[in-house]
Amino acid sequence: MNSKQTILDRELFAEALRHMGEEDLLYLNRMVIERLNLLAQVKSTVQLAQFTEGDRVEFTTNQGVIKRGTIVRLNKKTASLRTDDGQDWKVSPSLLRKASDRT
User: Fold this and answer.
1) Does the pTM of the predicted model rise above 0.85?
2) Is residue 70 packed enough to be buried (19+ CB in 10 Å), middle (13-18) or exposed (0-12)?
3) Do the domain assignments include residue 103?
4) Does 35 lie in the same domain as 12?
5) Looking at CB atoms within 10 Å, which of 4, 44, 96, 97 has the fewest?
6) Residues 70 and 41 in one domain
7) Residue spans of beta strands (DSSP E) within the chain
8) Based on the structure, what is the number of domains in the chain?
9) Which residues span the domain enclosing 23?
10) How far is CA 49 from CA 22, 75, 88, 98, in A?
11) DSSP code of 18?
12) Of 76, 90, 84, 87, whose CA–CA distance to 40 is shortest?
């Protein structure tokens, strides 16, 4: 599909949206949400596949603190890990990176 066709398809879609009633729009909304959830799940699965149990990883907390630890389990959407200071965390794989050898 070329870019000109994509623009035309989007314009046709936008025009169709203007003529949809509430019931059709709610149905379309459910379909869009399901698709977005599926894409997020696929992305998370791909990111999780980079890691295995026992891997040394690190991440930055919301407070800007770098935590290092070991993955103890890979869940459906997160990795469970035990940090070097003994805390248990469930972390999104998008926030994890392989730990450097530095301490």
Assistant:
1) no
2) middle
3) no
4) yes
5) 4
6) no
7) 56-60, 66-74, 79-83, 88-91, 97-98
8) 2
9) 3-48
10) 40, 11, 21, 13
11) H
12) 76
Residue 35 one-letter amino acid: R
Going residue by residue through the chain, which has 103 residues, state the pLDDT in tens, using 9 for 90 and above: 576 667 678 889 999 999 999 999 999 999 999 999 999 989 989 999 999 999 999 999 999 999 999 999 999 889 999 999 999 999 999 999 999 765 5
Chain position carrying tokens 């301490």: 103
Cβ(74)–Cβ(52) under 8 Å? yes
- Judged on CB neighbours under 10 Å (0-12, 13-18, 19+), 79 is buried
Radius of gyration, alpha carbons of the chain: 21
41 domain-assigned: yes
Please check whether residues 65 and 34 belong to one and the same domain. Answer: no
